[in-house]
Design goal:
single chain; 81 residues; mainly alpha; two-stranded antiparallel ribbon; 2 strands
Length: 81
Amino acid sequence: YDLRIPTPEPSPAVPPRVRFVSRVHMNCVDRRTGEIDYDRVPATRNWNRNTGIGSVLTSLRAEMASDANRRTRQPPEGSTF
């Protein structure tokens, strides 16, 4: 999967804006834009100055492996937003 993770100016006070470039169907990803829903990803929902991008990626990987998302039919490989 291809992601874009630009870090905002007030970083690390606010979480990075994470957007999937590769089209993916997950309950925490907007199906129109590819942006993650920060309220549904634990690392961004509970963000603090000590949280890093690695924690966000780990949370996204856990979401991908969850029962709800693992069984969701995915778009064809190579599809992008």
